[in-house]
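Retry 2 of 3 after timeout on previous attempt. Resubmitting C-alpha coordinates to design endpoint.
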Protein backbone atom coordinates (compact mmCIF):
# COMPACT_ATOMS: atom_id res chain seq x y z
CA UNK A 1 0.00 0.00 0.00
CA UNK A 2 1.00 3.58 -0.49
CA UNK A 3 0.95 4.13 3.28
CA UNK A 4 4.10 2.03 3.48
CA UNK A 5 6.12 4.23 1.12
CA UNK A 6 7.52 6.39 3.97
CA UNK A 7 8.48 3.20 5.82
CA UNK A 8 10.34 1.90 2.76
CA UNK A 9 12.04 5.25 2.21
CA UNK A 10 13.15 5.22 5.83
CA UNK A 11 14.48 1.69 5.41
CA UNK A 12 16.46 2.67 2.30
CA UNK A 13 17.87 5.83 3.86
CA UNK A 14 18.75 4.32 7.23
CA UNK A 15 20.00 1.06 5.70
CA UNK A 16 22.22 2.92 3.25
CA UNK A 17 23.49 5.29 5.94
CA UNK A 18 24.37 2.24 8.05
CA UNK A 19 26.67 0.86 5.36
CA UNK A 20 28.31 4.24 4.75
CA UNK A 21 28.86 4.68 8.50
CA UNK A 22 30.39 1.21 8.81
CA UNK A 23 32.80 2.12 6.00
CA UNK A 24 33.75 5.35 7.77
CA UNK A 25 34.13 3.49 11.08
CA UNK A 26 36.42 0.91 9.47
CA UNK A 27 39.01 3.38 8.21
CA UNK A 28 40.62 4.26 11.58
CA UNK A 29 40.80 0.53 12.36
CA UNK A 30 42.72 -0.34 9.18
CA UNK A 31 46.10 -0.43 10.94
CA UNK A 32 44.87 -2.29 14.04
CA UNK A 33 45.18 -6.07 14.00
CA UNK A 34 41.84 -7.80 14.53
CA UNK A 35 41.60 -8.88 18.14
CA UNK A 36 40.92 -7.37 21.58
CA UNK A 37 42.67 -4.08 20.77
CA UNK A 38 40.66 -3.75 17.55
CA UNK A 39 37.43 -4.41 19.44
CA UNK A 40 38.40 -1.86 22.11
CA UNK A 41 39.10 0.77 19.45
CA UNK A 42 35.86 0.02 17.60
CA UNK A 43 33.77 0.20 20.75
CA UNK A 44 35.24 3.60 21.59
CA UNK A 45 34.56 5.07 18.13
CA UNK A 46 31.59 7.45 17.94
CA UNK A 47 31.15 6.62 14.25
CA UNK A 48 31.08 2.90 15.04
CA UNK A 49 28.47 3.51 17.76
CA UNK A 50 26.38 5.53 15.30
CA UNK A 51 26.69 2.75 12.71
CA UNK A 52 25.53 0.12 15.22
CA UNK A 53 22.60 2.33 16.26
CA UNK A 54 21.69 2.82 12.63
CA UNK A 55 21.91 -0.93 12.09
CA UNK A 56 19.46 -1.50 14.95
CA UNK A 57 17.10 1.10 13.47
CA UNK A 58 17.29 -0.68 10.12
CA UNK A 59 16.43 -3.95 11.88
CA UNK A 60 13.40 -2.36 13.55
CA UNK A 61 12.16 -0.93 10.25
CA UNK A 62 12.63 -4.32 8.59
CA UNK A 63 10.52 -6.06 11.25
CA UNK A 64 7.71 -3.53 10.77
CA UNK A 65 7.92 -3.97 6.99
CA UNK A 66 7.67 -7.75 7.39
CA UNK A 67 4.55 -7.34 9.51
CA UNK A 68 2.89 -5.55 6.58
CA UNK A 69 4.39 -7.17 3.50
CA UNK A 70 4.89 -10.68 2.14
CA UNK A 71 8.53 -11.73 2.53
CA UNK A 72 8.72 -12.75 -1.14
CA UNK A 73 7.95 -9.16 -2.13
CA UNK A 74 9.72 -7.30 0.67
CA UNK A 75 13.03 -9.10 0.23
CA UNK A 76 13.19 -8.21 -3.45
CA UNK A 77 12.86 -4.53 -2.62
CA UNK A 78 15.81 -4.68 -0.22
CA UNK A 79 18.03 -4.92 -3.30
CA UNK A 80 17.41 -1.18 -3.74
CA UNK A 81 19.97 -0.74 -0.95
CA UNK A 82 22.63 -1.95 -3.42
CA UNK A 83 21.73 1.00 -5.61
CA UNK A 84 21.56 3.60 -2.85
CA UNK A 85 24.78 2.44 -1.15
CA UNK A 86 26.68 2.49 -4.44
CA UNK A 87 25.41 5.97 -5.28
CA UNK A 88 25.97 7.16 -1.71
CA UNK A 89 29.54 5.88 -1.68
CA UNK A 90 30.20 7.81 -4.89
CA UNK A 91 28.66 11.03 -3.58
CA UNK A 92 29.84 11.04 0.05
CA UNK A 93 32.96 8.86 0.00
CA UNK A 94 34.28 9.83 -3.43
CA UNK A 95 34.31 6.26 -4.70
CA UNK A 96 34.22 5.75 -8.44
CA UNK A 97 31.36 3.96 -10.18
CA UNK A 98 32.51 2.46 -13.47
CA UNK A 99 30.37 1.57 -16.48
CA UNK A 100 30.06 -2.09 -15.46
CA UNK A 101 28.83 -1.11 -11.98
CA UNK A 102 26.36 1.38 -13.46
CA UNK A 103 25.05 -1.33 -15.78
CA UNK A 104 24.75 -3.65 -12.79
CA UNK A 105 22.68 -1.05 -10.96
CA UNK A 106 20.36 -0.79 -13.95
CA UNK A 107 20.02 -4.58 -13.96
CA UNK A 108 19.25 -4.60 -10.23
CA UNK A 109 16.52 -1.99 -10.71
CA UNK A 110 15.15 -3.91 -13.70
CA UNK A 111 15.07 -7.10 -11.66
CA UNK A 112 13.24 -5.33 -8.85
CA UNK A 113 10.70 -3.99 -11.32
CA UNK A 114 10.17 -7.45 -12.81
CA UNK A 115 9.93 -9.28 -9.49
CA UNK A 116 8.39 -6.72 -7.18
CA UNK A 117 5.68 -5.11 -9.25
CA UNK A 118 3.75 -8.19 -10.30
CA UNK A 119 0.09 -8.59 -10.94
CA UNK A 120 -0.08 -10.66 -7.75
CA UNK A 121 -0.93 -13.92 -9.53
CA UNK A 122 0.95 -15.97 -6.95
CA UNK A 123 -0.67 -14.62 -3.78
CA UNK A 124 -3.51 -12.35 -4.80
CA UNK A 125 -1.59 -9.17 -3.95
CA UNK A 126 -1.45 -6.31 -6.42
CA UNK A 127 2.04 -5.00 -5.69
CA UNK A 128 4.97 -5.12 -3.30
CA UNK A 129 3.17 -3.14 -0.59
CA UNK A 130 0.26 -5.54 -0.25
CA UNK A 131 0.22 -7.78 2.81
CA UNK A 132 0.66 -11.50 2.17
CA UNK A 133 -2.67 -13.28 2.22
CA UNK A 134 -2.83 -16.49 4.22
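Retry 2 succeeded. Sequence:
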Amino acid sequence: MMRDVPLWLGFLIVGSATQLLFKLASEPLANVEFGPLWLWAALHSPVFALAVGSYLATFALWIVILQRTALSKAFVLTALVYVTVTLGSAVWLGEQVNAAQAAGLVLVMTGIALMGWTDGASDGASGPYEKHKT
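Attempt log closed. Residues 119-127 have pLDDT under 50 and may be disordered.
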